[in-house]
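I would like you to sit down with the pair of lines that follows and say whether tokens and residues agree.
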Amino acid sequence: MDNVTHTLFAATLARTPLGRAGRGTTAALIIASNIPDVDIVTTAGGAVDYLRWHRGPTHGPLGVIGLGLVTATIIAVVYRLIEHGPRGFRRATDSDLAPFPMLVVVSTIGTLLHVLMDLPTSYGTRILSPFDWHWFAVDWMPIIDVWLLIVLVACLMFGFRSPAARRWNAVIVLAFMAANYGLRGAAHRQALAIAPRLLGPTLPEPCSPETTRWQILDAWPRAPITMPVLAGTRCLVEIAAIPTFMSPFTWRIIAQMSNAYELYDLDLLDARVRGDSSGEHAFWRHVRRFPNVWTPAVARAAETHTGRVYLGFSRFPAVRTFTDPDGFTTVRWEDMRFVVAPVPRGDRRSSLFTVTVRVDADGTIRSERLGQ
């Protein structure tokens, strides 16, 4: 989730009993609800370092506990300085400030809820790092949910009307959030159930029986599927439904084959979805296809530092290669979660979710870069 949503949700939690445990708890909730994203400091080492550490240990078990303690300590120290500071500061008695153990509890809850709000997004998070560096996602929520933002802002404004409205504020928000998550979860499952039929005759056989098994939590990275391609066949690796920003009923369907990806947009409210998928409006006729064939040059590019970091982050990395007359091969990966249209050959548009590696004929790496 974006930091505006995290902050507004923390302000809503401050109107529950968590925010009435003493002075400092509101500040603790707001800081703790954003502090896992402190990993942004790794951008000082460049974009590759940031991608390597992004949503890593700060979003794992040690991060939740450690950052909860750090937040509580910051609040306790700052409020003590205010209490004993120069004239003009509002002075408080020791009984006004929440006890340190309570600040730790509140801060840890804020940090944990940050991670739990990131998990249902298609962007995902590494909830077990540094013990396990896999990414996990539930695919129910977009990175920014405009409807959740609207409700959070509206309910906070409503809460200013009276103490009674303030108490109802959190109840209304939590009820809406439960309904929103439930609706998106049900719509996500329906989209996955419909997708195989809409893909029609283009859908190959599953690579393994587990491919067709429905599961709530997805994890990556996974090893690239290369053997079926070498054998001259292709198979279905996975079908995913990625949420969109505006509606819980529209989804991006990503079908990962052993040698390509197929993408199309699905609107569950479209009457054609429930009709015959073999006629004029057959969805499989309108998919966008992206090749994804691993070659020796691709395997060599994957061994670079930038390649390893990117493939550790990217959930659906589609690779394309171009070989020039001099024998140099350009290897480019794009993450299908974020692609809007195929990047034309020679296009150098900046994107954090693209990696380009140049390999010469003898396998020597000539350049590697993230974001172009």
Q: What stands out?
A: The radius of gyration is 24 Å.
